[in-house]
Structure formats: structure tokens, C-alpha cells
Hints:
Layout: E1 2-5, E2 11-19, E3 22-29
Amino acid sequence: MQQRFCSCGASVWVRYFFANKRWMAFFFSDQHPMSGGTCSCPHCGQPLDIQNLL
């Protein structure tokens, strides 16, 4: 997994999977990286997009 950061500064973890001939990114909160995934920043609620993470 890779650690990335939302524009608000919150940390999120990203895990990549190769499926259907393309790479997909799944996001996990910093507090519980092995729990269920998330679609929004755990701090500000902004939707997560791999292209917008630092």
C-alpha cells in the first residue's frame, strides 16, 4: 500500500489491484488501513480521486 494525502492534509492509504486489464485504486483511512475501503476523505469528506492526491 502507498500512503497519499488529501488536499486538506489528511493521510489515506491506496492499494492498487489489476482487474479487467486495468489498474484500480482502492482507498483506506489512515486510522484503519486494513478495514473496509472508503470513497471520501476521513477528515474533510471530499471524494477521493487518485489523480488529486498528493
